[in-house]
Amino acid sequence: MASLxxxxxxxxxxxxxxxxxxxxxxLITKLGNSDGSVRENARLAxxxxxxxxxxxxxxxxxxxxxxxxxEAAKTLVSIADPVSVPALIKVLRDEIFDIRWLAAEALIxxxxxxxxxxLQALISESKESFLREGxxxxxxxxxxxxxxxxxxxxxxxxxxxxxxxxxxxVTIPVAxxxxxxxxKAARKSS
Length: 190
What we know:
Elements: H1 2-14, H2 21-30, H3 36-49, H4 54-60, H5 66-79, H6 85-91, H7 97-110, H8 115-124, H9 129-145, H10 150-164, H11 168-189
Helix pairs in contact: 2-3, 3-5, 4-5, 5-7, 6-7, 7-9, 8-9, 8-11, 9-10, 10-11
């Protein structure tokens, strides 16, 4: 991994601090390689590049190739950039469980910045079972393990309860709408 950092660092110096789009696209393409070590090296290089790679990785989340989607989601877990949140929320609906799980983990890694867009998705698409499943994982984790004030955690508790409900399609939109209003008000006052 150290050699990747050195290589990425030298390249960044050559480009005056900017990684070339062609280099990022080349690394993203390598995420679909059949050789696991090639994929891993590309993923580590993209992680080292960081935020500059997020847009390309977010676009890759909609690829038809399962391996590319998985690798892009895995990479975004480590980069943890809020810019990726909308694309990650879409991936919570992916047909492949492992990809959905990684998307949820990436949303968790972005922290509280994922809450508002996630609540908005629950308001408008509460009937999507995969979305509900991923949202439950994200919200529960953020409430328990992140540096969230008790006030903010209490705002989300009714949404967590609605996600556990026997009629989630009915209870989630209401709970999410109320939580979103309270969340925004609490964020403004802090």
